[in-house]
Amino acid sequence: xxxxxxxxxxxxxxxxxxxxxxxxxxxxxxxxxxxxxxxxxxxxxxxxxxxxxxxxxxxxxxxxxxxxxxxxxxxxxxxxxxxxxxxxxxxxxxxxxxxxxxxxxxxxxxxxxxxxxxxxxxxxxxxxxxxxxxxxxxxxxxxxxxxxxxxxxxxxxxxxxxxxxxxxxxxxxxxxxxxxxxxxxxxxxxxxxxxxxxxxxxxxxxxxxxxxxxxxxxxxxxxxxxxxxxxxxxxxxxxxxxxxxxxxxxxxxxxxxxxxxxxxxxxxxxxxxxxxxxxxxxxxxxxxxxxxxxxxxxxxxxxxxxxxxxxxxxxxxxxxxxxxxxxxxxxxxxxxxxxxxxxxxxxxxxxxxxxxxxxxxxxxxxxxxxxxxxxxxxxxxxxxxxxxxxxxxxxxxxxxxxxxxxxxxxxxxxxxxxxxxxxxxxxxxxxxxxxxxxxxxxxxxxx
Length: 447
Description:
Layout: H1 3-6, E1 8-11, E2 21-27, E3 34-35, E4 39-45, E5 50-55, E6 59-64, E7 71-73, E8 77-82, E9 98-99, E10 107-108, E11 111-112, E12 120-121, H2 161-169, H3 188-196, H4 226-241, E13 244-252, H5 254-266, H6 274-288, E14 294-297, E15 302-305, E16 311-313, E17 315-317, E18 320-322, E19 325-326, H7 334-350, E20 363-366, E21 386-390, E22 394-400, E23 403-417, H8 423-438, H9 441-446
């Protein structure tokens, strides 16, 4: 049996959470490297998180299927491994036996690498990257062409439909793009490089079916991929489906800041953040007004009111706005909320949260005050029904007991789905939150 026949191909595993593709961020290995079972071979970015993918096979790397920046569909080849006692694979080809492994024992962050039972089946040899060439006659020219005629122009080598769509949407003529993939295959990175080149605008004729605008000189092209694409799709769906209303109120947060200072003075080893206190107040409000801890099931024509509060926390990261979720937040003490919030937001910014931690929220808390703004009318995190926003806390003139004083003031806003409740419920929730911010002792009375 030859080495080519014994090569093992690891397919991009099922990522879970409805994810069907992943973008290659960085290869951890190169062709010719020796890898061990469950060694991390590539870092990929899904629509939910950045994860390292371990390979279930040991041996020498023969082929890396895809370059950094390229999107790979689930179930397609990711890396080809050959036994250490084998030879090299013929250049330009990747003929091999596909093997479904029983499982290496390793589990990816949020999902496993197993493909099921260890059954084997042979696949016919096929080209790995380039389409089949035209039939060649005995004198070295395409069949049907006279020996004196020039060879027909070579068509652009494109395998990925994502690359074709990207080129079409931005008016890039693929015949003018130089492919850097094996066999001259045009990759996504090649199209993006063509978009940034001065010559890119010569092909920037809008496709009437797509409606793309021409790309002008100096324009910056930012493809909607990964997390940014999911954010765009989700926000568009939320605005399209949810009849949202925003109400707001200014509150005196002086008492809340004093309470936080008192707690932290008593427990300096376990400091509590303002966000943790606001989360505790939201949980108190949702206990009184559970209608806001809901989602609308449009297919079944019903409102589903959640028994547990899975609290989403909007966090700005280098990869975009993420909303990690604290599951069963109603069971946590204030100190536990503070610890979980700190750990979760840090992991979100580091890109190390598993996909499951970024879905399933029932209510979101958004502290946009960290950006130095007072108010906002945020879009609800679909399919949730409500979102509380908190502006910056600043010194403002405020009337206290009939006297003008300088107090710490913030603005609270509640955006809610008008299908799940009317203004009375929404106003009652927001007023309860505002009262607890101004008089934190009410939290104890509400327990």
